Amino acid sequence: MPVAQRNKQKEKIHEIIFEADTPKGKAFDVILLILIMASVVVVMLESVQHLQAGYSNLFYALEWGFTIIFTIEYLLRLYCVYRPLKYATSFFGVIDLLAILPTYISVFVYGTQYLLVIRGLRLLRIFRIFKLGHFLTEADSIVKALKASRAKITVFLLFILLLVIVIGSVMYLIEGGQNEGFSSIPRAIYWTIVTLTTVGYGDITPVTELGQFLSAFIMLLGYAILAVPTGIVSAEMVAESRRSSQSNTQACRYCGREGHTDDAVFCKYCGEKLN
Amino acid sequence: MPVAQRNKQKEKIHEIIFEADTPKGKAFDVILLILIMASVVVVMLESVQHLQAGYSNLFYALEWGFTIIFTIEYLLRLYCVYRPLKYATSFFGVIDLLAILPTYISVFVYGTQYLLVIRGLRLLRIFRIFKLGHFLTEADSIVKALKASRAKITVFLLFILLLVIVIGSVMYLIEGGQNEGFSSIPRAIYWTIVTLTTVGYGDITPVTELGQFLSAFIMLLGYAILAVPTGIVSAEMVAESRRSSQSNTQACRYCGREGHTDDAVFCKYCGEKLN
Amino acid sequence: MPVAQRNKQKEKIHEIIFEADTPKGKAFDVILLILIMASVVVVMLESVQHLQAGYSNLFYALEWGFTIIFTIEYLLRLYCVYRPLKYATSFFGVIDLLAILPTYISVFVYGTQYLLVIRGLRLLRIFRIFKLGHFLTEADSIVKALKASRAKITVFLLFILLLVIVIGSVMYLIEGGQNEGFSSIPRAIYWTIVTLTTVGYGDITPVTELGQFLSAFIMLLGYAILAVPTGIVSAEMVAESRRSSQSNTQACRYCGREGHTDDAVFCKYCGEKLN
Amino acid sequence: MPVAQRNKQKEKIHEIIFEADTPKGKAFDVILLILIMASVVVVMLESVQHLQAGYSNLFYALEWGFTIIFTIEYLLRLYCVYRPLKYATSFFGVIDLLAILPTYISVFVYGTQYLLVIRGLRLLRIFRIFKLGHFLTEADSIVKALKASRAKITVFLLFILLLVIVIGSVMYLIEGGQNEGFSSIPRAIYWTIVTLTTVGYGDITPVTELGQFLSAFIMLLGYAILAVPTGIVSAEMVAESRRSSQSNTQACRYCGREGHTDDAVFCKYCGEKLN
Question: How remote is the C-alpha of B133 from its chain's centroid?
């Protein structure tokens, strides 16, 4: 096959696989999304014992079927992009690879096939396919607010870590002897985290009076602590929304004053027309 | 009956059933609210076994009594409005129909009578009847804030969905063999949601050390994640309250539009001088 | 006793009991606070069975001792104020009466003595005694923010109430037959509230697959719902703090511009000294 | 050893132990951090019974080894600082002492060695060593926001305390006779705190219908209450972020004070013209 012809073929495949603007490209993407969802559902159902007992062969066949399809797709992607290495090391490139590996590994190590659920992450392509770009902008603004509060949250988490180690050890000293649940410091720390985050399974609970008193104190503490990350993120988001609402920096060319809203047509101070 | 007379009769019924300004209309509405509440209470009590055993005939009679009254009311509403189809497809029209259907269906399918609690939604009329319009304004501002953050919350929920699928599968791999509770991926996902939302029933809990370690990590994650939707909604509500506090209620006498700030001298939409 | 002398005596008692400015008045209040705390602790300890078994006579004596002291104090308060009825119907007057009644009633109805914990509310006097007025200002600003969001919260609670009735009934239909915990609609509603508020005792948990699926959905809903009241209160408090931070309305007498902070000595626009 | 030589020696030790700018100082700090972490991990593992059974001698040796190293380090620190008392009473000085004491006390009182986890607090030095000063600034801003809301939170906690005492007593009266879990008022208060904070272990749950009804009410209350501390902290953090975003870092060249807004032309403290 001459190079020019091969390039044309590559371009055509690229258009179908990577783009969603042409009818063929869109059809390909929609079919892919459906296959991914079906594949994730199959993995989930496979883990349900009474289904596994009855349809084990069907699941086995489906699993390999999906994997072979996704492998071909992965190879085609590698084939048709101009810089295969860049795709292979990109976010979606890595996910696409991780989405087929577990089946091959499961030949050697039983159980890894359940890791196939990672295929679910491929569904993130849904935003690009259906032109839901503005949703990504929103996600971006969440990520921005979280990044802005990263330092605060890191300090906060380190503080929590030291706190649960100290509280866990004290609870181990108090409850350790009389309570199966507090049989070691790591378990006591597990209990402390379960309590501070207000999850409260109840698989481990204090039985001594001193332990219950301290627990009540820890819960009220957790109550106050819970307010901190929420406050951090809220403050960031408020600042973010204030920034974007004040972003109109237009000054009136007549009186020079600023502070106009985006929908303003005339200067509210002198009545001059704005640009 | 001549048309004119019938129309007058229709109007009179309409006034009583649909309006709450006349003494008769108000009396009708108050009686209706009481009947609805009584009817919901009866459905609830009917489900309590030791009451059902003793008063089964009474409950049966009351249930049909209420249903017949509400059916007559529904038919009268259809009769007296000028555009019956519009009422029938409106929010309250659908609710009014759903509030009587379950009794009739229960003749064929046992158990559906408990769906009669949907009658409770008819109580929403309370705002209109007692002129609590400003409460609805408040509800409106909540709904507005939620709508404004809809895109952000959708992205967030999709992210959570993918997250619980991946975490659930990993926990299934870790705990699956040794723990009844993690017997399948769907159950492990159920556990993940119970944990991430800090509900923490404790009907399923990790027993392996690795599982407990990962759980503790998931809880701290849930802690941080919990802050995100709260931050989103808070930021929206703060922005909403800022908007309403910064704009006064003055309308431009030329173009009639509102939303001017206190220091505005000219209308920002048409340039007309404000008072 | 002549009227003048009696009035002087009344005034003296009033000074000691009601005021905390004189040494005697302060001493009286401190002793009272200690007695109240001791009395609440005694009521609590009395309810612990193995203590009650050993010290039942001591508890009985202490309880009557405290009650007699508080009764004398109550009568003295009534005696020395100029308008006894006004005191008797004031917040603290009612609390003072409720703090002694249960002991007398317990002669006729056993168990009411535990209601003596209501004495704890008398501790609220602590703010007045130790001149912690600014704490009350803070409490006031919390109450203000809550009041401002009252309408929003009422609408929200009504919505939650209707929601838990509908969800509870649906869960009763799904789980009712196979699950002891969902034996009636009221119990199912109790479970719904336990779940939506993320308390999650685990005394009642869904066992059917459909029930668990719906539960997971309810939890994610509760997650989103939890953000609403927090957002409401946060927005109110932010607005409150903004109002108070903007409260300086001083205008420069030279250039007339506003927006100065409380600690400003000179106008930041023209350098003129501010008042 | 002559004084001058000794002083030089002291200075050299000081440089290594207290400073992290020189290669030797940094190496010392990094080794120290690793030792502290290793020591905390050893204490945790020691509490795990099946490990303690097999490696009891190893743990004993390691524990004493770490303690001797940290004791030498503590003595060196005391020796090389100019004002030993000031160091000994500083935050890190106290922590450094508490980090070695438990081992010595454990000779007399068994079990105290688990208090060695307090060594973990020494890890806070990590910020200084790796020049993560800006993280401390963030911590500082969290602490500032919490301090600013201290009065509000104190009032709030006192209110919660009185609330749980009253609710706990009422629940004791309702459930007391029929429910093992509510056997005394202190236990009922413990349950109330577990419920109000939405931890919800489920080790104690109401069984009577009235008790479950009241519990549901308490949970909805806790729901609303949860919003208050979050609102307080959020409002403070928003105010904090607004303050810092509105004031630039320009200092007046005359009086040297900061906190000027961007539009300020004159220093608001002394009236001097700003750049």
Answer: 18
C49 and chain A in contact, CB less than 8 A: no
For the ranges B2-6, C101-105, D246-250, the one whose mean pLDDT is highest: C101-105
Which residues have a Cβ under 8 Å from the Cβ of C83 and sit 6 or more positions away?
none
- Residues B236, C236: C-beta atoms closer than 8 Å: no
Shortest alpha-carbon distance between residue B10 and chain D (Å): 45
> HSE-up of D38 (CA within 13 Å, CB side)?
14
Reported confidence tier of residue A145, pLDDT bands at 50, 70, 90: confident
- Quote the minimal CA–CA distance from A10 to chain B in Å: 33
- pTM of the shown model: 0.83
Q: Which domains does chain A have, with CATH numbers?
A: 3-130 (1.20.120), 148-243 (1.10.287.70)
HSE, side-chain direction, 13 A CA sphere, residue D259:
12
> In the structure encoding, which two tokens stand for residue D18, read together?
């207290």
Q: What is the dihedral of CA B227, B229, B233, B236, to 10 degrees?
A: 90
First to last CA, chain D: 57
Closest-approach residue (CA) in chain B for A200: B200
Is C54 at the interface with chain D, CB within 8 A?
no
- Decide if D236 and A231 are in contact by the 8 Å CB cutoff: yes
Chain B interface disruption, residue of A33, A125, A194, A253, most B CBs within 10 A = A194
Confidence of residue D147 (pLDDT cuts 50, 70, 90): confident
- D184, D194, D215: best to mutate for the C interface, most C CBs within 10 A: D184
Higher pLDDT, D268 or C193: C193
- Cα separation, D228 vs D221, whole angstroms: 11
Of chain B, the percentage scoring pLDDT greater than 90 comes to 17
> Does C230 contact A at CB distance below 8 Å?
yes
How many whole angstroms separate alpha carbon C187 and alpha carbon C208? 17
CA distance A30 to chain B (A): 18
What is the distance between the alpha carbons of residues D253 and D202, in angstroms, rounded to a whole number? 64
Query: What tokens appear for D208 in the block?
Result: 């009577």
Tokens at residue A70, please? 């996704």
Mean pLDDT across chain C: 82
**By the 8 A CB rule, do D125 and D33 touch?**
yes
Among A124, B224, B146, A131, which residue's Cα sits nearest to residue C156? B146
Check CB contact under 8 Å for B226 and C222: no
- For residue B210, what pLDDT band results from cuts at 50, 70 and 90? very high
User: Rounded distance, CA A63 to CA A159, Å?
Assistant: 45
> Between residues 7 and 36 of chain C, which touch chain D (CB distance below 8 Å)?
none
Total residues found in chain B within this entry:
275
Q: Do A166 and D123 touch (CB under 8 A)?
A: no
Higher pLDDT, C120 or B69: B69
Residue whose pair of structure tokens reads 């106050």 in the numeric block: A224
Spatial CB neighbours of A56, under 8 Å, sequence gap ≥ 6:
none
Say if C41 is an interface residue toward chain A (CB within 8 Å). no
Which chains contact D through at least 3 pairs of Cβ atoms less than 8 Å apart? A, B, C
Strand partners, D266: D273
Count, in order, helices (H) and strands (E) of chain B. Answer: 11, 0
Query: CB of D200 within 8 Å of any CB in chain B?
Result: yes
**Contact B148/C at CB under 8 A:** no
Is residue B16 within 8 Å of B10, Cβ to Cβ?
no
DSSP C43-68: HHHHTSHHHHHHHHHHHHHHHHHHHH
Percent of chain B with pLDDT over 70: 87
ipTM at complex level: 0.81
Give the whole-number percent of chain A exceeding pLDDT 90. Answer: 17
Residues A177-209: tens digit of each pLDDT: 888 889 889 999 999 999 999 899 988 999 998
